[in-house]
Amino acid sequence: MSERSERTGPASAVSIDIREVGPRDGLQPEAPVPVAARVELVSTLVAAGVATIEVAAFVSPKAVPAMAGAGEVMAALGPAPDGVRYVALVPNAKGAELALAAGLSALTLTVSASEAYSQRNVRMSVEESLGQVAAVRAVVGPSVALDVVVSCAFGSPYEGEMAPGEVAALGARARSSGADALTYADTTGMATPRRVAELVAETGPAVGLHLHDTRGTALVNAYAAMSLGVRRFDTAVGGLGGSPFAAGAGGNLATEDLVHLCDDLGVATGISLEGVLAASAQVADLVGHVVPSRVAAAGPRSRLHPA
Amino acid sequence: MSERSERTGPASAVSIDIREVGPRDGLQPEAPVPVAARVELVSTLVAAGVATIEVAAFVSPKAVPAMAGAGEVMAALGPAPDGVRYVALVPNAKGAELALAAGLSALTLTVSASEAYSQRNVRMSVEESLGQVAAVRAVVGPSVALDVVVSCAFGSPYEGEMAPGEVAALGARARSSGADALTYADTTGMATPRRVAELVAETGPAVGLHLHDTRGTALVNAYAAMSLGVRRFDTAVGGLGGSPFAAGAGGNLATEDLVHLCDDLGVATGISLEGVLAASAQVADLVGHVVPSRVAAAGPRSRLHPA
Q1: Residue A93: HSE in the Cβ half-sphere, 13 Å Cα cutoff
Q2: What is this structure's pTM?
Q3: Do A261 and B217 touch (CB under 8 A)?
Q4: Which is nearest to A133 in space by CA: A153, A150, A116, A121?
Q5: ipTM strictly over 0.95?
Q6: Hey, what domains does chain B have and what are their CATH numbers?
């Protein structure tokens, strides 16, 4: 964190921490990309100043072909540079063991607030999924950082509204089961500023948010959350992503769109907008299609038209 | 306004006025659409509860082919239904005369904060353009509503930043030249919540905003503006639009995206989301391509997946 503070400078009254999930959530629904290219994308993100990157998922390659080769990714990456933290998604204790063996010391694990989504995403009930939190903690010991991502926290495409109090209670149970941080995910873009405020009123602002732009609300939700004191956000370069297990899911909040907003608001991210735009162009080449980010398409507001 | 209040109900603490500009700004950069189809689109918008609609532009059909036939549009529309107001864009006194002859009693006229954009858009200097405000007022007399839209109010793709004080001063000059309302336009998507706050600090909240989503910030800018007390917004069904004279311009804030947000925030718009989604599907058919609105693509958050 000291390096981060130096990078953002002493004039920054407010800063946020961005966890870049592009190499994992961003690439997950895409046609598989070679390990070497995924590693190169991580390098570009590091060069852009991204301090926390979800680089892999230790999941079944049959279930998520694009995430195959997590061990190879880690081996090719080598140890994280100073001031950078690599994170991997694990679905269970077995995945955690593999991640640990691959050298990771920060993990994410998803628990869904939606019973129906949980069944479709991990073929477990919510209760069984909570049991995995304890199982993973037992396997990894106390020194590994374990962030539980509560999916469908702002609504489920199957059950509809989620009561904020119940979602927060699920988060509290995940903490007492072994999570040392919580991130609430808007898996299918059902969050609104009002929903964000209602959930943060229950959880307090010391949580992360993982926002999807399915209905064009990711940026306004992040803005509303920042105004409530939330300081941790998941984003994906280019705005790629979306669960293959949720009908109608859209891409993640684009890293460049949040950095572009924060730069203008004077909220420090430690990330170079030009650097992340380079990563965005790279990931567009990798997936072979235009990325959803509007800033990637239009360029930053500071980029003028030659008169 | 009384009908509007009835429609939104007494429980609404806050409401906004949406001026739908889809039939004008939305269709302007598209391949020309027949008059009958434009009239039908207006009917669908009226049925959705839209109370103010910019239905035509009395401009040169050579310069803007999609806006040809403004007189025919007005003739086919006939008088506006009770509680509905039709508006037309005019570039000058001659356009205002034509609009008046076609039965309009509410006009918009653009004055640019950017000298370079003004030259490209209307081939006039900013000073000459201000002169048109007085000329139009002289032609239409005191009873016609004249809203001056200050374009490039949050930045110009040619000159960059616009000083909020200077932009507000230009608006004040437009008022003293004969405008009875002002709308500040983010013609090329350079606004941010900070820029909105800086301009509203100069103008006060009794202005309209016309936001474009070039950089994905239209909704967050509208949200920030509402929190500052701004209550008038231009939107275009489907999020279509963009100036043919501004490089990198993106579509307007989509009507359905703002209504979707306001519905959830408890901000009354008087507009039925399902109704505007019907208009959005209609306009997508008319232009022959997918519209930018995310809510149009994903459906409202209340539309669940069949389990």
Answers
A1: 13
A2: 0.93
A3: yes
A4: A150
A5: no
A6: 2-298 (3.20.20.70)
